[in-house]
Specification:
Fructose-1,6-Bisphosphatase, Chain A, domain 1, 8-stranded mixed β-sheet, 5-stranded mixed β-sheet, alpha+beta, 13 strands, about 325 residues, D-Maltodextrin-Binding Protein, domain 2, globular, binds 2,5-anhydro-1,6-di-O-phosphono-D-mannitol, 9 helices, binds magnesium ion
Length: about 325
């Protein structure tokens, strides 16, 4: 019997760095291992989420006398802890915190900025549906005068991302990431606690046959979006479309990445700027989409070209296959 070689994410990253950045110090791999560790801790807790009611409700003490935390708070702390101890992370910013957290003011050591959504789609936890962690890694830019505010180091356009990815806590736990040299997927082998490569060079189909949107909002979408959806349903787009919507961005995007089609969260009456967050939802997803041959736009231009002005800024997000995005632009531009 022939055995396939088990390639862990660390091995893969090591090879990738050797190929593309022979001078690399290994610091980046060290940083990424902080993320993989945190997501294993989070994934373990997600698996046991249904037992929270038995072990104790949120804010209460569980049978061991420990205070039970909400899962998204727990996920946030796991990431802050695992990244904060890495030594080369200067600034962290999270969906769970109002402000960016400065870990290391010394620019010589603190090279990286990490922005994340610790547990996306958390409204799905109670019903045993997939949730995820999303992350984006930026370089801290040089600051000759030493006066730049930490937030300015965070608010960089998505094009400047060094790496981005997500972990989807689904029927298996999968990590998908890019450093700008293609998109790779790793599945957690729970028996050995390692992420093993399972998806080499993921590419999004040029056109799919699924669209993904919260259709309950569609009466309040700008007209172009409504006509676009009607066009997809009409069969005139060359495919018979079906709809899929989970309500967890990571899971909805993961499917779109593998199967193609389009995911959209347009402006609505409740969210005139769109609901999703630019820095830690749209940017990392857009980087992955482009690296896989797809596209991500805000209805006008590429997400990755937007200049952020606030940490928790929202944006419309339309992401998917080339063909579906081209069609959308004809309707909304
Ligand atoms: P959250 O960060 O509060 O979990 O909200 C983000 C989630 C995304 O995962 C998902 O795409 C979207 O909100 C779903 O929103 P809606 O329920 O309005 O369709
Ligand atoms: Mg979120």
């Amino acid at each position: 019997m022939q055995h396939q070689q088990l390639v862990t994410i660390q091995q893969h990253l090591y090879e990738e760095q050797r190929r593309n950045y022979p001078q690399a110090s290994g610091e980046f791999s060290w940083l990424l291992s902080g993320i993989t560790l945190a997501t294993k801790i989070i994934g373990d807790r997600v698996r046991r989420a249904g037992l929270t009611d038995i072990l104790g409700v949120t804010g209460d003490q569980n049978v061991q006398g420990e205070l039970v935390q909400k899962l998204d708070v727990f996920a946030n702390q796991a990431l802050l802890h695992c990244l904060g101890s890495r030594g080369n992370v200067a600034i962290m910013a999270s969906e769970e915190g109002e402000h960016a957290i400065v870990v290391d003011r010394d620019r010589k050591h603190g090279k990286y900025v990490v922005v994340f959504d610790p547990l996306d789609g958390s409204s799905n936890i109670d019903v045993n549906v997939n949730v995820g962690t999303i992350f984006s890694i930026l370089r801290r830019e040089p600051d000759a005068t030493g006066t730049r505010e930490p937030l300015a180091d965070v608010l960089q356009p998505g094009r400047k991302q060094l790496a981005a990815g997500y972990v989807v806590y689904g029927s298996s736990t999968m990590l998908v990431y890019t450093t700008g040299h293609g998109v790779y997927g790793f599945t957690l082998d729970p028996s050995i606690g390692a992420y093993i490569i399972s998806h080499e060079r993921i590419t999004m189909p040029k056109q799919g046959s699924l669209y993904s949107v919260n259709e309950a909002n569609s009466d309040t979408f700008p007209e172009g979006y409504r006509r676009y959806l009607a066009h997809l349903r009409s069969g005139e787009a060359g495919k018979t479309y079906s709809s899929r919507y989970i309500g967890s961005l990571v899971a909805d995007f993961h499917r779109t990445l593998l199967k193609g089609g389009v995911f959209l969260y347009p402006p609505t009456i409740h969210y005139p700027q769109g609901k999703l967050r630019l820095m830690y939802e749209a940017n990392p997803i857009a980087f992955l989409a482009e690296q896989a041959g797809g596209r991500a736009i805000d209805g006008q231009g590429d997400i990755l070209d937007l200049q952020p002005t606030a940490l928790h800024q929202r944006t419309p997000l339309i992401v998917g296959s080339q063909k579906e995005i081209e069609m959308l632009l004809q309707f909304v531009r």
